[in-house]
Amino acid sequence: MTELIVVVGAAVLSGGRLLAARRSAPVELAGRWELPGGKVEPGESPERALVRELREELGVSAEVVRRVPGEYALRAPYVLRVWTVRLLAGSSEPLALQDHDALRWLTADEVWDVDWLDQDVPAVAEVARVVWGEFSPPPPLPVPVTESGAPPPNPRSSNAGGAIG
Question: Where does this protein have compositionally biased stretches of type Polar residues (predicted)?
């Protein structure tokens, strides 16, 4: 049996808003949005990994607040676990330093305005429930019709593997 490798995701919160980060690489994920984070290194706790990843990826000082319920499957053997995080007093504003080309603060009404990576969608829905006290499923995708009249493949299911940062 293969041992799970934990990938940590940060639900960075400030002023009632959630931070989303747009991937710049790899090519198949570029332009899609995610919760920032990355792999837990051997001997590292998930909480320490989050603090390290946020410093490396966004240039911020942060503290982990609490674990968001759930565990989200990525490509084997990776699994995503998410924590709420707040920026420490005196921390710089987040910058897109590594793996991202844009950042966006989202309110509860805006959380589905970005094209989240497939594996982040259930995690973001759970974050919305925990943070804003409501279940906030993503809106359904419009179903375009091809020239043959058949719907094209679902874009949300085309890259279920996702990136491992």
Answer: 156-165
> Which uninterrupted H or E stretch holds 104?
strand 100-106
- pLDDT, one tens digit per residue, over 22-42 is 999 889 999 999 999 999 999
**pTM score:** 0.81
* Phi, then psi, of 6 in degrees rounded to 5: -85, 130
Whose CA is closest to 35, among 74, 75, 90?
74
C-alpha span between 164 and 99 (Å, rounded): 11
- Give me the DSSP letters along 40-96: PPTT--HHHHHHHHHHHHH---EEEEEEPS--EE-STTEEEEEEEEEEPTTPPPP--
